UniProtKB/TrEMBL annotation:
InterPro entries: Chemoreceptor_zinc-bind_dom, Globin-like_sf, Globin-sensor_dom, Globin/Proto, MCPsignal_dom. The keyword Isomerase does not apply. This is Methyl-accepting chemotaxis protein. One of its GO terms (cellular component) is membrane.
Length: 578
């Protein structure tokens, strides 16, 4: 359009719209900058006017790049800059032009050229062209002004595209980074299992601690009993040793008694011998008495023959006979006494002999028993040593078990402390995930940035990781998710992108795109069912749905990664073409 005067009005500067008509964001960019097909025609006029100075413009741009990022000029040569400038001035504003510009801008970004300094470079380029136009058509101010306006619009479009490339790439990196953060964050879903395991462990430790305390009591009782047994065993050993000593002394006395009885037997044998000698003497005296009696009888007979002369001799003979009879009677009495003495002596001798035999047998048995008694005393000594050792070991075990009980109590306290740390960690991680989510949503919603397909796919990844994460935290008790909070798979960010006509046109037939809808729908169904189950108090049902959600989410993430890889490959290919 032509301005009505040399200085454009505010309304003229605020005009929007374009006569280009094709699908895509670039039409909005053209419209916002009020760039039309007439402007494109004027761009070609500018190109003709500044053609003699094209190499200067290339050099200007190249030197600016070299100053900003020297390494970039190894890839972005003067020839590449010239190709870009030719496209800027001569290429129709359509999808092909956008692809050409984006390839160049992505190349600049890849070489890490600072975007702020690039804008300065574009402004310098714009100033160079403007001053060149002024030098060429200064005498036609209206034409000069319209050409300058067209150039400014074209430069504005380039700068807008440049900023969008950098901001969208930054958003892609942020979205990718937050997606990875959330992915790693979501991996901490084991906190629930950790807390459950710690609860179980704490319960087990409490049971073991109680059992250990009971065992401590039992072992202490055993130790006490062992000590008592050791003491009693010591007493028994002392008594056994004393008994052995007494038995030894008794054995000595028995042997001495046996010897005395043997002497008595010998003496009785001598007594028997003396009695035999007495009997022999008595037999002799008895014989003498018989002879005396016979002589007295003969004397009486002779006295009778002598008559009167023999009367005195007869009296003597009678007295002698009486004395002989009396002697015989006395000898009979003595013989009876000696017989009785022999009988009693024989009985006593037999009794003493029998007793002596018994004592000898007892001595033999005692001699045999003494080694056994010694063995018993020795065994009792060994038992004493063992019981003393057992008592000491039992006391050590009692101390060890008591130490175990103390340590188990410490472990129980430590387990509870670890559980509290796990609880705090879970809450902290949950708070961190909420902060990360607020950060990414703030970047997207508060900065008016239009998302590229890659950035949107990364955000969609995070969205679905968050659903898994939110349901998990709902089960743990860190977050509230109502069933009505779970939208359908048509209404979420991914669903809106998936069912968008432009997306269908761009990706229809792509395997990952075609497969994405089914697991995506399962994610939303499982999330809703999990929230419903949890609201009813069905924790197991909620956990089962979480597992289903996780399986579906894994498939969604895998397919989204494939789509991201496809977008990235297409962009890399286009960059390499540049």
């Amino acid at each position: 359009m032509l301005f009505k005067r040399l200085r454009p009005s505010l309304n003229e500067l605020l005009e929007k719209g374009t006569d280009y008509s094709f699908h895509g964001r670039f039409v909005d960019t053209l419209s916002y900058n009020h760039f039309t097909t007439e402007d494109f025609a004027k761009l070609k006029q500018i190109d003709e006017l500044i053609a003699p100075h094209k190499q200067e413009m290339v050099r200007l741009f190249y030197e600016a790049l070299q100053h900003v990022q020297p390494e970039a000029t190894k890839t972005i040569t003067e020839a590449r800059i010239e190709a870009y400038l030719n496209a800027f001035f001569t290429m129709e504003r359509n999808r092909a032009y956008v692809d050409e510009s984006l390839r160049f801008f992505h190349l600049l970004r890849k070489e890490k050229v600072n975007v702020g300094k690039l804008i300065v470079a574009f402004n310098q380029f714009n100033f160079f062209v403007l001053t060149t136009l002024l030098a060429k058509v200064a005498l036609a101010p209206k034409r000069c002004l319209t050409l300058m306006e067209t150039l400014q619009r074209a430069i504005n479009i380039e700068q807008q595209l440049l900023v969008e490339v950098y901001t969208e790439t930054l958003m892609e990196q942020i979205a990718d980074g937050t997606a990875k953060l959330m992915e790693q964050n979501a991996e901490i879903m084991f906190i629930k299992d950790l807390l459950q395991a710690l609860d179980q462990q704490n319960s087990d430790v409490q049971m073991v601690t109680a059992a250990t305390e009971e065992m401590t009591t039992a072992v202490s009782e055993v130790a006490h009993a062992a000590t008592v047994i050791a003491e009693k065993t010591t007493t028994s050993v002392e008594r056994a040793e004393k008994g052995q000593q007494m038995m030894t002394e008794a054995f000595g006395e028995i042997i001495e008694t046996s010897e005395q009885f043997t002497n008595m037997v010998d003496r009785f044998e001598h007594l028997q011998q003396h009695l035999s000698a007495i009997e022999k003497v008595m037999q002799l005296v008895n014989g003498i008495a018989d002879q005396t009696n016979l002589l007295a009888l003969n004397a009486s007979i002779e006295a009778a023959r002598a008559g009167e002369y023999g009367k005195g001799f007869s009296v003597v003979a009678e007295e002698i006979r009486k004395l002989a009879d009396h002697t015989v009677q006395s000898l009979g009495e003595v013989q009876r006494n000696v017989g009785e003495l022999r009988t009693i002596s024989s009985e006593v001798s037999s009794a003493i002999y029998s007793t002596s035999s018994t004592i000898r047998q007892a001595v033999n048995q005692a001699q045999e028993a003494m080694p056994l008694l010694q063995e018993i005393v020795s065994a009792m000594g060994d038992i004493q040593d063992s019981t003393n050792t057992n008592a000491a070991v039992a006391e050590e075990q009692a101390a060890a078990v008591d130490e175990i009980a103390t340590r188990m109590s410490s472990i129980a306290s430590l387990t509870e402390f670890v559980r509290e740390l796990g609880e705090k960690t879970g809450k902290t991680v949950h708070a961190l995930s909420k902060a990360i989510d607020r950060f990414r949503l703030g970047l997207v919603n508060d900065n008016g940035i239009k998302l590229s397909s890659k950035a949107l796919l990364h955000l969609a990844k995070t969205d679905h990781l968050l659903w898994k994460w939110r349901i998990y935290n709902m089960i743990v008790g860190y977050e509230t998710v109502r069933p009505e909070d779970v939208a359908s798979h048509y209404q979420c960010r991914l669903g809106k992108w998936y069912f968008d006509e432009q997306t269908k046109k761009q990706l229809q037939g792509t395997p990952a795109y075609e497969k994405l809808n089914a697991p995506h729908e399962r994610v939303h169904i499982a999330a809703k069912k999990a929230a419903e189950a949890y609201a009813k108090g069905d924790l197991k049902g909620a956990e089962a749905q979480l597992k289903e959600l996780e399986q579906a989410s894994i498939e969604v993430i895998r397919l989204l990664d494939e789509l991201i890889e496809k977008v990235e490959k297409e962009r890399t290919f286009e960059t390499h073409l540049a």
